[in-house]
Amino acid sequence: MAKILDGRKISKEIRADIIERVDRMKEEKGIVPGLAVVIVGDDEASHVYVSMKAKACKSVGFHSEEHKLPESTTQEELLNLIDHLNNDDKINGILVQLPLPKHMDENLVNSHISPQKDVDGFHAVNMGNLTLGEESYVPCTPKGIIELIKRTGTDMAGKNAVVVGRSNIVGKPAAILLLKESCTTTICHSKTKNMELFLKEADIVVAAAGVPNLIKGHMIKEGAIVIDAGTRKLDGKLVGDVEFDSAKEVASWITPVPGGVGPMTITMLLENTLEATEKLWNSRP
Ligand SMILES: Nc1nc(=O)c2c([nH]1)NC[C@@H]1CN(c3ccc(C(=O)N[C@@H](CCC(=O)O)C(=O)O)cc3)C=[N+]21
């Protein structure tokens, strides 16, 4: 029977530390970290996530702004807003909620954010530096995933890690981070033949496909660490990529959905925004 990796509890611990650092920063330097979240269009789920991010900012004492733009916004108008936020001293971090409407180029928009304020880590320079092993902002969900694996106390070096999903925001950067931890890292995706063959050898499974209940207990290696980054609404209920009930019989550790990777994503966003603020401050004469 697997132990539960409780993302809410771990988040609470990390957020307590963030609150202390923010208080000290306010007291000693008179500065308040600021995050701007930009959302285009009226996708309901996206709006829920954005308000969760704003609430989390307030709970740790950040300044937070939500910029809600209509679906009809042109890409140029969005880029103008980003220019404005890039030059706004109250703002240390900028996040443009994905997905963007179809008439926009997500990579182009992300790379319009100042790399110093790119707390999502999606700017081409940050993605490039991450891949090179240089200092960079690390995308929030993959960063949270690594933090969760570390909390199991497992030495990752030499372990077989299988990431299911190759998105730019989760799967791809998660694989790069696992490689950095010296895992033997494989990425499976929708064109993979016989995914079970890879999963059966995996000591660490990171599920980020967005396909409800794709991975079942019988596919997993005995004692594996199973991290579920899937979040899909199914009949009004939030479900992951892993069939929890069967997987928990086989795994050594498993994350629940909700209450696993999700809360860690938001906590890592707070951490990146605080880091951006500290860096800016330290770079000043
Ligand atoms: N630029 C950008 N950055 C993102 O980080 C980003 C994004 N766009 N677009 C959408 C995805 C999704 N995402 C989640 C964040 C928190 C939860 C979360 O906290 N979930 C809770 C439950 C929430 C609920 O009940 O609906 C949980 O798993 O316990 C989930 C998903 C961030 N994303």
UniProtKB/TrEMBL annotation:
Pathways involved: One-carbon metabolism; tetrahydrofolate interconversion
Record EC number: 1.5.1.5, 3.5.4.9
Stretches assigned to the Tetrahydrofolate dehydrogenase/cyclohydrolase catalytic domain: 5-120
Any GO molecular function: methenyltetrahydrofolate cyclohydrolase activity
NADP recorded as keyword: yes
GO cellular component annotations of the record: cytosol
UniProt binding sites for NADP(+): 165-167, 231
Entries under InterPro entries matching the protein: Aminoacid_DH-like_N_sf (IPR046346), NAD(P)-bd_dom_sf (IPR036291), THF_DH/CycHdrlase (IPR000672), THF_DH/CycHdrlase_cat_dom (IPR020630), THF_DH/CycHdrlase_CS (IPR020867), THF_DH/CycHdrlase_NAD-bd_dom (IPR020631)
Catalytic activity: (6R)-5,10-methenyltetrahydrofolate + H2O = (6R)-10-formyltetrahydrofolate + H(+); (6R)-5,10-methylene-5,6,7,8-tetrahydrofolate + NADP(+) = (6R)-5,10-methenyltetrahydrofolate + NADPH
Protein name, UniProt field: Bifunctional protein FolD
Natural source organism: Anaeromicrobium sediminis
Lineage, highest ranks first: Bacteria, Bacillati, Bacillota, Clostridia, Peptostreptococcales
Gene name, Swiss-Prot/TrEMBL: folD
